[in-house]
Amino acid sequence: MIFKSNFTKRAGMAALALSVAAAGAPGIASAQAGGKPPQGWFKVCTKQEDNDVCIVQNLLTANNGQLITAVGLITVSGKVNRKVVQVSVPSARMIPPGVQMQIDGAKGVKLDYAICMPDKCVAEAPLSDALIANLKKGNEVVFTSVNFQRAPNPIKMTLEGFTGVFDGEPIEQSQLEERQRLLQEEMQKKAEDARKKLEEAQKAAKQQ
To answer: How confident is the model at residue 151, as a pLDDT?
Structure first.
């Protein structure tokens, strides 16, 4: 991603988040016992020309790896200074409602969509100090998008560990690669288990 004078355009910011998050996706934070893939908040930082970019993020996916909701709190400092929060949800969303962000049942904050692609839509809003403070003292945050059938789709995300990650150091590239490996192995295992169950069900149906 190359920063240009039109960086403040929403599509440009969305592209930034996607490019930086791609280096850190799938989103994971700290290793768990038993070789299971870690979950939760994690922080990735990178240098983009004359700017330092840090993203505190969390990613929820289905067993097949499909995106459920991804969150990125982006801080850009240097030649460009900007803070935004972005939320990625599956495509086929109603655009006008945007994504509602609600912390511990308080009044929601609306994030307008900045860009939509075949596999996801990205909404964003300014990342204020007040919003950061509320996230730090909160227990859970709910992101609600509206699908093409006009049905709200609320997704809960825990805020456990958020403060330590936000204020702490970013994870190293080697740690990130290890976490990606663990997550990929777990997804492959789930896919294999699902395949075996399907084969067993087909066998049982033939024997009846």
So the answer is: 96
